[in-house]
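SUBJECT: protein chain
CONTENTS: sequence, structure tokens:
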Amino acid sequence: MWKYLILGAAALALGACKTTSNMAEDSQAALEEANKEKALYCMDLLFNQHDIETSREECFGETYIQHNPMAPDGPEALFAFMTPFFEANPDAAIHIKRVAAEGDLVWIHYNNKPTPDSLGLAVVDILRMEDGKFVEHWDVVQPVPEKSANDNTMF
């Protein structure tokens, strides 16, 4: 009889571990989904709506570590660049093609166009997020060519 009680207790313990593991996975998936949604909202707010003030308040942490070698650290450096850019390019917009997340990182692949008729740039931003705000940034940027050696698009 004790053998069956011990086996039953072991089965319950294993079930509890699996439930705890599933809860952690669900929590991680929920965080990743929330980070993707917030990142998409923030990218639209800044790059399509050109709303720097709301973007500053809602989307960027006090710390913003920049890995692009042509840009200084800090969100204010980004805003100082974007403000005159948007004034000179009022129709500038991004067209998001795909987004993915893992942990606190979000990848966004998009076409960045300074004017509607421009081919623009193919961009992948990698953003680290804390508490729903961007705190670190990497990017890979490539001009979209007029002609390609293949029939595939960059998007």
